[in-house]
Amino acid sequence: MKKVDVLKEKLDLYEKHLHQPKVLGLTKEQLEKEIQILKTQIEKSKRGKGNRQKGSNYENTIAKKLSSFFNILLKRTPQSGGFAKESNSDIKGDLVCLDKDVVFNLHVECKNQKSISIKKWLEQAERDCPEGKIAIVIFHLPQLIEGGKIVQKANDYVVLSLSDFLLIVDKQKVVCRER
Length: 179
What we know:
By secondary structure, this protein is α+β, with helices and mostly antiparallel strands. Helix content is 47%, strand content 18%. It has 6 helices and 7 strands; from the N terminus they run ααβαββαββββαα. The chain has helices at 3-16, 28-70, 82-87, 118-128, 162-168, 171-174; strands spanning 74-76, 95-97, 106-111, 134-141, 144-146, 149-152, 155-159. It has a 3-stranded mixed sheet with strand order 3-4-7, with helices on both faces.
């Protein structure tokens, strides 16, 4: 049984006994306070599920884009990277390459959040990054509308250290000599 279901059952029980709080060994004030706490916990649980789904959808979107670009099979890591923390697995980051004959050298963290915390995201990516891989953070900025006009189109961005960027950038595409 899910945690939210347990909370709902407990809330139903407490609300049934609102006029008989002594049956539960509580005062009326204590029972009202417990009911309020349960309602808050249930609401937070609903919000958390939506955020997890939003993050999961974004990771799947980025996996498809990178798979198409690199012509490899990337998938979302089970439990969105939490898999590695629980099992001490070699699978780390938000995306994993499923091609057996491919070494994917990027450690990807995907972020689709309202507030931007680049420093915190980079610290996480670099801390979790296996040796020999390049830690990157891919994040989404949503469309911004002010006064009925689009002032910022939705877009995705990549953040990585300068030294890692210089390792992977194609110099020929950045510097073109005129002849």
